[in-house]
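lol so apparently i was supposed to do this last week
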Amino acid sequence: MDKRGPIGFFDSGLGGISVLKGTMELLPGEDYLYFGDSLNAPYGVRTVDEVRQLSLAAAEHLLEKGTKALVIACNTATSAAAAVLRQKYPQLTIIGTEPAIKPAVQACPGGRILVLATAMTLQEQKYLDLWEQFRELANIVPVPCTGLMEFVERGILSGDEVESFLLEILEPFTKVPVDAVVLGCTHYPFLKGTLRKILGKAPAIFDSADGVARQLRRRLEDQGLLRGRETGGTVVFENSSCDESLLRLSQKLLETE
Ligand code: DGL
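anyway here it is w/ D-glutamic acid bound
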């Protein structure tokens, strides 16, 4: 594996850019190649088998471009396809994304924790295992958010439309106080401002970017694949859709605070 190769990221669309941002902060000396599969988004409403096939195709595409490590920057694809990807590429460093339930439980033991994610993520084994592991330490409440990622894909991060959509989803869950919210889909960190408006200041909000970045650094270090600070730092965006505006939106999301 060539140390100078880029780190490949993929997601069903642009959400994984929230994970890319976290990784770039921790590993500024690497080069990055981000593949957004917006043409086939959303993954969350597809069958598990479809998400597996799409994930295998995305990984193959990134590997053809010399990717030295793969980040599945999507909770849904991780749930459905991490195992098959690891089986197909046993030598490759593959980092998946899972809901940050552990840090949320550690910060709010005994608390009421909402996990916002796609219906598929919340039905798959990865989530069920996490729930099993932590269910006695906190009240973990799954909240499927079908239709929410589409706002980010359209570049709508705030405003009446997304606010009332989110309000409708969250209303049944916010009648009782909430201690923490886990963003179990990589699109949702871009909606943090709108979420805050609805949830108020109190609940802590957790996403997976930091955990993924740290795990990736550890694995690259172990394998002697980590680059120094003096090199790299480039990002290339690719998208399965031929809509050029998605590449501009990708860059904009990367620069979003
Ligand atoms: N960004 C994806 C995730 O983290 C999913 C959105 C979708 O394609 O449904 O789960």
